[in-house]
Design a protein that fits this description.
Radius of gyration: 19 Å
Number of strands: 13
Helix content: 40-55%
Number of helices: 11
Distance between the termini: 37 Å
Strand content: 5-15%
Oligomer: single chain
């Protein structure tokens, strides 16, 4: 059945791709975004397909209500609005905490009042500094002393968001949690406040060396946006798991099974761009950067029927084509 869907933060990287998918499936969609990081031009082509856009603040109940009124009701909330980007975690920890925590509380309160299903975009950062791998859907979270650095302003805000979601579930809300692992693809921010894959490709576009933090041996599981969107879509669409299980309160890791070091990523980017390949430079980095991050996605596979289908090499080719046709 077609739904009336609110996507907070829908002008952001994951949001734009999710909105496109929702519209393709016949849903009515309204986006609420303050355009702090989101780009309206990425949504512009979708407005001809019926998308409603509202500039506003997810922490403001009046703005959320305007989005509700625009569609005459909301059946499903995809809550993606947040401050992301590692530099922000260190430089603006208070803003990160304010937007991420209070925005989630506001969106949850409205979803409960509206009787809408709720999908919360969390993060593997919600596990904090946990070093035991792989990270399971119900893994413990471990956070270092707050005096050490501010990186976990983001991860802790997502952890608190998950706590708030589970409290709402106990009060009767049908809410699900999705954790995308190192998503990359078209429209990913590549500036100084962006994410690593796009930053590397933008370095190539500008013919600057690719900077690899530390010794480059830290690993991640880079997951293409098409796979990420499929997981979000199923988390919002399914009334029950494909295995017959209840989904309210369920958490889903969305991650490639391919564990890749950042140095290997830089080498793969150079292989993808061919003759435009640039030099690699080691150095720099951020306090609190995880040495390793890989997920177990059993819950996503069993309950959503989700698997990661796009290999890193194929995903990099697609992303490069969007930047350098």
């Amino acid at each position: 059945m077609n739904k009336r869907v609110l996507v907070t933060g829908g002008a952001g990287f994951i949001g734009v791709a999710l909105v496109r998918r929702l519209l393709e499936e016949g849903h009515r969609v309204v986006v609420l975004d303050n355009l702090f990081r989101g780009r309206l031009e990425h949504l512009q082509p979708l407005m001809d397909e019926g998308l409603v856009f509202m500039e506003g603040d997810v922490t403001n109940h009046d703005d959320l209500q305007r989005a509700y009124d625009a569609l005459g009701g909301i059946d499903l909330v995809h809550h993606l609005a947040a401050i992301n980007g590692t530099k922000w975690f260190h430089e603006a920890a208070t803003m990160v905490i304010d937007v991420n925590v209070n925005g989630t509380l506001s969106a949850l309160q409205c979803a409960k009042a509206w009787g809408a299903r709720f999908v919360f975009a969390s993060s593997p950062e919600a596990f904090g500094d946990e070093s035991t791998m792989p990270l399971f859907e119900h893994h413990h979270a471990v956070f270092p002393p707050a005096s050490e650095h501010q990186r976990f302003s983001y991860g802790a805000s997502k952890y608190l968001g998950e706590l708030a979601v589970h409290h709402a579930v106990r009060e009767g809300l049908d809410a699900r949690i999705v954790r995308p692992f190192n998503a990359y693809g078209e429209h990913l921010a590549g500036d100084a406040y962006g994410q690593v894959v796009a930053m590397m490709m933008h370095a190539v576009l500008n013919q600057h060396p690719i900077t690899v933090h530390g010794d480059g041996q830290q690993t991640r599981s880079f997951t293409h946006i098409d796979d990420i969107v499929e997981g979000f879509y199923q988390a919002g669409e399914l009334d029950q798991g494909v295995d017959g299980s209840a989904l309210a309160g369920a958490s889903f890791n969305l991650s490639s099974a391919q564990e890749t070091s950042v140095l290997e990523l830089a080498q793969a980017v150079n292989a993808t761009v061919g003759s435009l390949a640039v030099d690699l430079e080691l150095g720099g980095g951020y306090h609190g950067d995880s040495a390793r991050r890989v997920a177990d996605c059993s819950g996503s596979r069993q309950q959503l029927g989700w698997t990661c289908k796009v290999s890193l090499n194929d995903g990099l080719v697609r992303m490069w084509a969007s930047l350098h046709p």
